[in-house]
Design goal:
Oligomer: single chain
Distance between the termini: 45 Å
Strand content: 25-35%
Shape: globular
Strand order of the largest sheet: 13-16-15-14-17-18
Order of helices and strands: EEHEHEHHEEEHEHHEEEEEEEEEE
Helix content: 10-25%
Number of helices: 7
Length: 378
């Protein structure tokens, strides 16, 4: 089997250039491989100043300029496409609605699904391009029958396959990830950018949510949803504190609870459940976070959907580790049982299943099964 980027036929490639070092090097490698590459920067805000400030590699005016300069150095055409309305609707408003419903979304995963590999890819194909190229660290493998699989990057330390687990087989057929087979450190990627004359070589990586300029998620949500005082209760339902909006909490959160009464055992308490119906946050001991199973909805498969139950490894966060699970698709829902209990699993998060390095697919967590259920439920 072969990696898709090594195809012998030159392709018309649309390179999504965020203004960061990874996407610039990916575009340069695609051009060096002989493909007919055009660079495009996605304008995701009608007012870029409302997004993150400073050269961080995503959505600012500086990022657009950095992407244009990189395209000039590579020697490829460059455009800026306005997808602000689509981004606001599919990513920002979805993010706010999920928190309002007591769930914990992943906006980067949603952006890959709805923007980079739906809106962008659809437009690229309509314009006659063969593929969209990004700077993600993941691999696409082409099988002898021509079908494609998504795999983890060669370097697990940089692997980003989790946020790509929403891609289906058709989208994989038109995707290129030139960095996915790179067994190099990020410093070496930066050194390559410098050798190529790309000014973004020393630009800091982006880690924050791009549309929350100051990194204050709770403040952003409060501005959108308003303050709504409610109770913080323990597992017995006893009120032990108040909050200004249940949307400001996530399952497993320990810091920032502002509870005046210490626990009887003197140990830290964690957020166990968030109930948007009565605006109540339930807290308790770490052991009560142990999850033995979950149900996930809206499954998306990176290829053919699995038939029957199977044993996989699962990843529950973009930078989390793997855990062994058994999973089966029942009535359109994914039912998952963990071999060993895990903590910090919240509705709204994505679970991504793997078979070795192959990404099987993903689904959105709807509910969990606790080894020690809290009194209040999500």
């Amino acid at each position: 089997m072969t990696d898709t980027p090594q195809r012998t036929r030159p392709l018309r490639v649309l390179a999504a250039m965020s203004g960061g070092v990874d996407s610039a090097v990916a575009a340069a490698r695609a051009a060096e491989a002989g493909h007919d590459v055009t660079g495009v920067h996605l304008a995701l805000s009608a007012n870029p100043q409302s997004f993150r400030t400073g050269a961080r590699g995503c959505c600012t005016i500086e990022d657009s300029r950095d992407a244009r300069r990189a395209a000039d150095v590579i020697g490829i055409p460059f455009y800026v496409w306005d997808l602000a309305d689509r981004f606001r609707e599919d990513v920002v408003e979805d993010f706010v609605a999920e928190y309002e419903a007591g769930r914990t979304p992943n906006p980067c995963l949603r952006c890959n699904e709805k923007i980079k590999f739906a809106a962008l890819l659809d437009k690229a194909l309509a314009l006659g391009f063969d593929a969209v190229c990004t700077g993600h660290y993941a691999k696409i493998v082409t099988l002898p029958d021509g079908s494609r699989e998504l795999h983890r990057a060669s370097d697990m330390a940089k692997d980003q396959s989790y946020v790509l687990g929403v891609l289906d087989e058709k989208q994989l057929a038109h995707a290129l990830f030139p960095l996915g087979d790179t067994l190099t450190t990020k410093d070496e990627i930066r050194a390559e950018a410098e050798r190529r004359g790309l000014a973004v070589a020393k630009k800091p990586d982006s880690h924050d949510i791009c549309f929350i300029a100051d990194g204050d998620t709770q403040g952003f949500l409060a501005q959108r949803l308003g303050k709504a005082e409610g109770d913080i209760v323990d597992e017995s339902g006893t009120k032990i504190g108040t909050h200004e909006g249940a949307y400001g909490f996530t399952i497993g959160q320990r810091k920032g609870l502002r509870i005046g009464h210490p626990a009887a055992d003197g140990k830290p308490r964690y957020v166990l459940d968030i109930s948007p119906v009565d605006n109540t946050v339930t807290v308790g001991p770490a052991a009560a976070l142990d999850v033995t199973g979950l149900t996930a909805v809206r499954p998306r498969w990176c290829g053919t959907a699995p038939t029957g139950p199977g044993v996989y490894t699962a990843q529950l966060r973009a930078h989390g580790g793997e855990t062994e699970v058994s999973a089966a698709l029942t009535d359109g829902e994914l039912r998952v049982t963990f071999t060993a209990p895990v903590r910090g699993v919240a509705p709204g998060q994505a679970i991504v299943l793997y078979d070795g390095t192959r990404v099987v697919g993903s689904a959105t967590i709807a509910s969990t099964v606790r080894r020690q259920p809290a009194t209040s439920t999500s």
